[in-house]
Amino acid sequence: MKGWTAAELLDHPDRLLTPLVRTVPGDRGSPFRAAGWDEALDRTVAAITAAQERYGRNSVGCFGGGGLTNEKAYLLGKFARVALRTASIDYNGRFCMSSAAAAANRAFGVDRGLPFPLADVARAQALLLVGSNLADTMPPAMQYLNEARDRGGGLVVVDPRTSATAKTATVHLRPVPGTDLVLANGLLHLVLRAGHADLEYIAARTTGFDEVRAGLAAYWPDRVERITGVPVEDLQRVAGMLGTAASAMILTARGAEQHSQGSDTAQAFINLALALGLPGRPGSGYGSITGQGNGQGGREHGQKADQLPGYRRIDDPAARAHVAAVWGVDPEELPGAGLSAQEMLSGLGRDGGVRALLVFASNVVVSAPDRDRVLDRLCALDFLAVSDMFLSETAMEADVVFPTAQWAEEEGTMTNLEGRVLRRRPVRVPPGEARDDLRIITALARRLGRGAYFTDDAREVFQELRRASSGGVADYGGVTYERIEAEQGVFWPCPEGGTGAARMFTERFATADGRARFVRVEHRDATERLDAEFPYVLTTGRLMRQYQSGTQTRRIAALTRGETVPRAEMHPDLARRHGIRAGDAVELRTRRGSALFVAEPADGIRPDTIFVPFHWGGESGANALTDPSLDPLSRMPAFKACAVAVRKVEGPQPQLGGRTHMDSTPRFLQGIFPFTGKGLDAPYLLASELRYVVPDGYVTQPVYLRGGNSCDEMVCLILMRDGVPMRYLPIGAKDGVHVSLRVVEDLMAGTTIEVYVAAPDGVAGSVVVDLGLVEV
């Protein structure tokens, strides 16, 4: 639903249409005023020049985003190294995929979120999903989990909450947040004990197994239960499901990875996958689910502090020489590795830190941990420029704000979670004075005297990206706009003349010897311990209707209906202990700060855990609470577990309107039904089981409709809304179809949905129907 409502933002009244500058230069307490592009760009270049002359080149920094197209991410990285000649660049993907990326690079020699096509998920006979609520955060992907289930596959969901996805699971494991590594090691212990390990695969395709096996002695089932809270019988059941399935898959996401030991946790699940012999087999493997629109491509082409295009290491002399040759500069001119995102933010305005910062496609005031410290550091800057579509919380702190184009107004490419490079085409020009970020970056480079190295034409930028990435780990050399169109996307790695690798690791891994690496990992306690003052565990996550910092989604009426105030989900026992009832205002407090939420008691969450969404800023900002402690390998902050206290806020309560519970529940109308045609112009209700009425107080969105036809004639399924045809679905003779319904509008309470069939008079047979809906 976030996708099909996104067009509402294109002409939103809050849209930035002209550059903004402070009325009094250098005084961020003075109001913004509209300005021309020349003034905005000149102020920015003057601030860059002044900072670098006084403090050195690294005093100017760039902070990018996983929502940038490949072209923009590439050009921003090049701008930092060639125009600014600074090492100070990183991006918000450091808060998202970095732990899984670090583990995959260490184990496989390459980081591609899913090293297999997404369709492989539907072929898994057993699937372990760790730390992801796909039904809410990526609803279109649920079709593959549903198909796997329909084929008899078993789904195991690891989540401290009974999420919408967990409700569909065969087994739901609810570990203490921050103990997923123990869970993975405990499952591997049981897999080895039961003789389920693929010893032939291990011997032929991996290294390091003996050391991992030696360490597993400490993860016997009773100890794992004591640490994680997961019963031994559930551990044994899941180990048996994974070990005996003909095909199995392990997928991790932010719930497992956003910890101070997130890289090791991802590695522990990779160890489990390798021991079972899963990577490289159809319908099997290990993968990590991307969290941003271009989370995969955004980390491949140079906006990370330690990377050059093609996923090359910036400290590799051969990589520097290759990229410098493409850029037409001396390799010695390229800076070295800079600081990671949180480290750069922590040093803003300090001696040796960044003094002038340019932010593209990121809202760090809401999305970074320990928000108050980040806000304090932004205020300490000499200069801040922000490129955004709206006046975000970060843009409100800026000296200069650039109005940028939206998705429908720009050309470029994105790389999805399965490594498929896709094309984005503009369908309209940006409104007002708004410009694409390629134009903004190139204009700044020209004013800095480095314009000869830059172009703002997306196709030309992509052609250069291809050359710069060629021969690298993420090789785009053989990807062209024309191939993307002709093939509906091209998988990387795809060298010049290559076909693109939809499924990786079938014969070898991307390591020097072609073998995957087992790595022994041990559990460490969370950086924050619970005590009498902070007795509970706080974890954060996403809601179906909101996205990231909420800069866009909180401006769409259909997405904020009933969710104008964020809620703190807690177990009823915990709520009663503090005299809290549904709808009460509560204050959550950690060792960094406090924030206000509305209480939502829910049986499906652990009694020692409180869950809050992170899409809001201000007094309800979850990241005012979160722990900035970093994973030593990935530099990922510990968003998912910290110690927290809760108290009821006395006095007037907020007026929310509507119900307080905003969880989502998948609904399925499905089965195999006989029919006898009455004529194509005489449709009728196929079966009473195919009638659904939206309950009072709920809104439902159709997600997909699948159908199969056993007879020798074409038939038609008709989705009816309150007796009126909503969608026709012709199905050929002995054929099947599957269509997305994501563009369909909200179905309000009381709406009746039915599935009718129309067939030639007298024709008989059976149809398979599977209608997926989400009730929120």
From TrEMBL:
Listed PANTHER family: NADH-QUINONE OXIDOREDUCTASE SUBUNIT G, RESPIRATORY NITRATE REDUCTASE
Gene symbol of the encoding locus: nasA
Signal peptide: none
Biological source species: Sphaerisporangium melleum
A Gene Ontology molecular function term of the record: metal ion binding
Protein name: Molybdopterin oxidoreductase
Taxonomic lineage: Bacteria, Bacillati, Actinomycetota, Actinomycetes, Streptosporangiales
Residues covered by the Molybdopterin dinucleotide-binding domain: 536-643
Annotated Molybdopterin oxidoreductase domain residues: 15-446
Keywords for this protein: Iron, Iron-sulfur, Metal-binding
InterPro entries linked to this entry: Asp_de-COase-like_dom_sf (IPR009010), MoPterin_dinucl-bd_dom (IPR006657), Mopterin_OxRdtase (IPR006656), Prok_molybdopt-oxidoreductase (IPR050123)
GO BP, sorted A to Z: respiratory electron transport chain
